């Protein structure tokens, strides 16, 4: 299933703002245009996040990277962002577990249309930006709404609001 235009616009806005912060902070990280996550022992199919931030220094430990944009080791990944679509259950449940298992330090769930279930985004449903930070192998989640300034421990100087990335 291909994403919608607005979905791609939000993904691009997120990637652009993160990339500007990577440059400003002089981090040795990159955001590939396309990338799959496929741990070697994984039974499940590969994951294709909307935005992924990789540590360039750790790419030399990736067995497939030189031939294909596939990441096998979770420690190469600094951040993953998913823009919520109609299959919101994947982003709020399955991927939370999978990304935590891979030890990815931060996972962003960007629900710009307020599609998630009530148990995930509350009632009434509204656009929600969730930052999941890995603490002792489990994600601690912080939700942000329109107008809120979003805080990321990976990018403490990032000036970002959900309003800035909306289509």
TrEMBL record:
Coiled coil: none
Gene Ontology MF term list: endonuclease activity
Assigned keywords, A-Z: Endonuclease, Hydrolase, Nuclease, Plasmid
Presence of the UniProt keyword Nuclease in the record: yes
Domain of life, source organism: Bacteria
Residues in Putative restriction endonuclease domain copies: 2-162
SUPFAM superfamilies recorded: Restriction endonuclease-like
Protein name: Endonuclease, Uma2 family
Organism: Nostoc flagelliforme CCNUN1
